[in-house]
């Protein structure tokens, strides 16, 4: 599995320093004055003119916020404007979430007393004027969530009092200015979700007050500079989803304040230093997934006792997982997915025992490794707070132990692609919140747990490629799973029919794949109730009957596979109105009649297989029928025509072209009168003869009268 977007784990949202700043803002606003009682003699014309110029550049103000910015009103009373009590100069401009659009006027630089400048969540566009660098008292700048572009102004580095810069979620491009390293007091720098390129300037290491640095979701490249280690106050660094590479400099782990390291989805490489656990003692989150790290997971990692997110997924870590990993008592998320951990041996999951101590565990993802042996029974002792457990794509064997049912809050259980055998444990029905259960590609057998659908929350069930058997599971088991959207039970030994009720109760189905079983019976007309269906694969079964004409009601259907069954009758004419169909396979059935008219007009169809049926008549030549590589019609001996590449015989001329028609008319017009004449003569003589015979017959049959 792919772990969720690291940004969504929420560690940025509970930022202490943000709270600090916010309270600073509030204090500043309380000290300021907004009352109309302020005497006009203190008005500063410079500020008023600058504000008017600012207003002038705002082209759209849907909430009419700036209506109050008029001449009859003292500018310190204008909405969003805050002035200092004593000097009556503008100290804060706060216009957030008003859908304002326009450019930022350079005259803003004249508001020389401004400390707080907050235009977040509007539609400002264009570039930030360099004049912002004249705001030498500025301590807080928030321009995030706009559509500002261009480069980050170098002159911003003149704002030497600056504590916090937020310019996330814009369209800034170019490099991060080296000069920002001059902002000695800067605590927070947020530039994520832009299009910044180039390297992270080494001057960032000079930001000795920096607490939070977020440069995620850009196009930054190059190394993490060695100098970063000098930013000794750095507590949270988020540079995930960039193109950064190289090793993590040793100095970096020396930053003892570090609590959050989020560098996932880059091209970093190297191994983790063996003493990583010793260095940042407050480390809470280590997210280095989707990089090119290798080597062992250092034993010392268990010293990072505050760790609650450990994401090492999608790297090349190998060897055994440290058996003391579970001493990380605060651990909530553990992802080791897609590495080369374990040695396909019994001891591989030995660390599970210690993990039972991590009572706050939420997500455990061990999928896609080299773990072997059986699933340890102790696994059932993991935290009951578990919401996701992934063991897929390993070499686990033996049976699935009882005990998983204890995880009442589990929403996703993935044990797919292992070598597990035996039956589905009976306590699976105890899950209250399970939404996804994926057990595909194992050797599980027996009947599907009859109470499985006690889990009413289940929407994704994948049991494909096992040895499950049993009759009428649609009616006996699945009928109660009424929120199913994705159902994969293909390649088992399941049998029986699909009842009309099943379709009636499962209109939520989006993907239904039941191919390669021995299901039989006909497809009920109620299949048309599956209005959300996109993918329907019932191929390689023993289905009989006709293709239901109601399939056309599945108006979202894109993939329809019904091949290798015993369907007979004609292909419903209305299939040609399934607008969204892309792939259609009805091959190897016993279908008769003609290819429906209009099939060639379907816009999205790119694969059509009607081979090995008993179809007849003329093959169309337009639409998909123009492309021999996208269609297959072989094994229908009564078809004719079509494009020559298909190799079917020409159709016999019935109506033919105009010339042919003409010939027929000529022939008829000369031959017909003669034929009529001959026929007339014959009939005449025949009638006379008949009369004679009948008379003789009637004579002979008459009772003899005396
Ligand atoms: C208004 O501000 C300007 C520029 O800072 C300054 O030169 C001027 O003296 C101020 N005027 C008053 C009345 O404070
Ligand atoms: C801002 O200051 C500059 C330079 O001092 C001046 O040219 C400009 O007119 C001022 N703008 C306003 C709106 O006062
Ligand atoms: C000026 O703004 C004030 C305060 O919002 C408002 O009451 C007044 O109607 C406005 N005047 C004009 C001419 O728009
Ligand atoms: C900046 O503004 C955005 C959008 O209004 C907001 O979500 C964010 O928390 C602000 N940042 C700071 C540091 O206040
Ligand atoms: C920023 O400082 C530099 C160097 O002191 C100066 O040349 C530049 O004009 C300043 N920029 C602004 C916008 O004040
Ligand atoms: C980011 O910049 C690259 C290269 O300049 C450009 O191709 C891409 O479209 C930009 N992306 C966005 C979201 O602006
Ligand atoms: C960091 O600051 C020091 C002292 O101000 C300066 O000498 C050095 O050049 C700066 N480093 C970078 C990379 O800007
Ligand atoms: C399950 O989740 C619910 C709601 O989120 C929570 O109240 C409950 O404590 C959880 N149960 C366990 C065993 O973690
Ligand atoms: C399944 O649900 C039924 C009805 O809600 C209940 O009677 C039964 O005990 C449940 N079975 C299990 C194994 O949870
Ligand atoms: C449906 O399932 C099949 C088989 O697993 C898969 O290939 C396909 O992408 C799925 N399609 C949709 C729309 O879910
Ligand atoms: C399914 O069809 C195959 C092939 O005709 C046949 O051998 C088999 O007995 C059928 N199975 C069932 C359960 O109908
Ligand atoms: C196809 O139908 C014909 C005639 O009904 C029947 O003889 C034949 O056995 C059927 N073939 C298959 C494979 O069902």
UniProtKB/TrEMBL annotation:
One of its GO terms (molecular function) is protein serine/threonine kinase activity. It is a single-pass membrane protein. It is found in: Cell membrane. InterPro entries: Leu-rich_rpt, Leu-rich_rpt_typical-subtyp, LRR_dom_sf, LRR_N_plant-typ. Coiled coil: none annotated. SMART domains: LRR_SD22, LRR_TYP. Pfam families: LRR_1 (PF00560), LRR_6 (PF13516), LRR_8 (PF13855), LRRNT_2 (PF08263). GO terms for cellular component: plasma membrane. Its EC number is 2.7.11.1. GO terms for biological process: defense response; response to other organism. The chain crosses the membrane at residues 666-688. The keyword Magnesium does not apply. Its main location: membrane. The keyword Transferase applies. Keywords: ATP-binding, Cell membrane, Glycoprotein, Kinase, Leucine-rich repeat, Membrane, Nucleotide-binding, Repeat, Serine/threonine-protein kinase, Signal, Transferase, Transmembrane, Transmembrane helix. Residues 1-38 form the signal peptide. Residues 45-83 form the Leucine-rich repeat-containing N-terminal plant-type domain. This is non-specific serine/threonine protein kinase. It comes from Cinchona calisaya.
């Amino acid at each position: 599995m792919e772990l969720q977007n690291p940004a969504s784990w929420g560690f940025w949202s509970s930022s202490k320093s943000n709270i600090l700043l916010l309270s600073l803002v509030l204090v500043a606003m309380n000290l300021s004055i907004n009352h109309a009682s302020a005497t006009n003699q203190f008005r500063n014309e410079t500020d008023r003119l600058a504000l008017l110029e600012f207003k002038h550049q705002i082209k759209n103000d849907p909430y009419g916020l700036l209506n109050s910015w008029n001449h009859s009103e003292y500018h310190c009373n204008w909405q969003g404007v805050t002035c200092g009590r004593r000097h009556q100069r503008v100290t804060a401009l706060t216009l957030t979430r008003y859908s304002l659009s326009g450019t930022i006027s350079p005259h803003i630089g004249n508001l020389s007393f401004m400390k707080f400048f907050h235009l977040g969540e509007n539609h400002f566009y264009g570039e930030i004027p360099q004049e912002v660098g004249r705001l030498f008292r500025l301590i807080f700048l928030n321009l995030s969530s706009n559509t500002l572009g261009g480069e980050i102004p170098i002159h911003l580095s003149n704002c030497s009092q600056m504590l916090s810069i937020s310019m996330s979620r814009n369209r800034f491009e170019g490099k991060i200015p080296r000069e920002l390293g001059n902002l000695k007091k800067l605590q927070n720098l947020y530039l994520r979700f832009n299009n910044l390129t180039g390297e992270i300037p080494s001057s960032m290491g000079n930001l000795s007050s920096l607490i939070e640095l977020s440069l995620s979701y850009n196009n930054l490249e190059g190394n993490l500079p060695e100098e970063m280690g000098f930013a000794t106050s750095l507590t949270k660094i988020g540079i995930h989803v960039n193109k950064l590479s190289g090793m993590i400099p040793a100095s970096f782990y020396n930053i003892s304040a570090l609590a959050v390291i989020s560098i996932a989805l880059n091209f970093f490489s190297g191994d983790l230093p063996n003493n990583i656990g010793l260095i940042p003692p407050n480390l809470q989150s280590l997210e280095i997934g989707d990089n090119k790290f290798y080597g062992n997971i250092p034993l010392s990692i268990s010293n990072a006792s505050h760790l609650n997110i450990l994401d090492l997924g999608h790297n090349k870590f190998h060897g055994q997982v440290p058996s003391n990993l579970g001493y990380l008592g605060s651990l909530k998320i553990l992802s080791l997915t897609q590495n080369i951990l374990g040695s396909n041996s019994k001891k591989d999951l030995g660390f599970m025992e210690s993990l039972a101590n991590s009572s706050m565990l939420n997500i455990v993802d061990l999928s896609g490794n080299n773990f072997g042996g059986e699933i340890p029974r102790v696994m059932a002792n993991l935290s009951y707070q578990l919401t996701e457990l992934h063991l897929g794509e390993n070499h686990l064997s033996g049976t699935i132990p009882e005990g998983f049912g204890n995880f009442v809050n589990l929403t996703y259980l993935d044990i797919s692609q292992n070598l597990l055998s035996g039956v589905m444990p009976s306590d699976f029905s105890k899950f209250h919140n399970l939404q996804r259960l994926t057990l595909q590609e194992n050797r599980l057998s027996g009947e599907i747990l009859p109470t499985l659908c006690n889990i009413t929350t289940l929407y994704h069930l994948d049991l494909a490629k096992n040895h499950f058997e049993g009759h009428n599971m649609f009616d006996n088991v699945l009928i109660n799973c009424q929120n199913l959207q994705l159902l994969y039970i293909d390649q088992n030994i399941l049998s029986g029919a699909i009842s009309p009720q099943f379709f009636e109760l499962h209109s939520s189905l989006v993907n239904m794949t039941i191919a390669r079983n021995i299901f039989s019976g006909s497809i009920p007309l109620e299949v048309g109730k599956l209005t959300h269906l996109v993918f329907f694969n019932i191929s390689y079964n023993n289905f009989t009957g006709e293709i239901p004409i109601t399939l056309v009601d599945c108006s979202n259907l894109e993939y329809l596979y019904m091949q290798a069954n015993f369907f007979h009758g004609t292909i419903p004419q209305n299939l040609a109105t399934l607008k969204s169909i892309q792939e259609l396979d009805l091959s190897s059935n016993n279908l008769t009649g003609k290819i429906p008219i209009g099939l060639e007009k379907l816009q999205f169809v790119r694969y059509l297989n009607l081979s090995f049926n008993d179809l007849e008549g003329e093959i169309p030549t337009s639409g998909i029928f123009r492309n021999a590589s996208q269609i297959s019609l072989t094994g229908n001996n009564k078809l004719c025509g079509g494009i020559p590449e298909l190799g079917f015989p020409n159709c016999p001329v019935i109506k033919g072209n105009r010339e042919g028609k003409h010939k027929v008319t000529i022939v008829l017009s000369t031959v017909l009168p003669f034929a009529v004449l001959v026929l007339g003569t014959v009939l005449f003589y025949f009638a006379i003869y008949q009369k004679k015979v009948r008379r003789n017959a009637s004579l002979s049959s008459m009772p003899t009268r005396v």
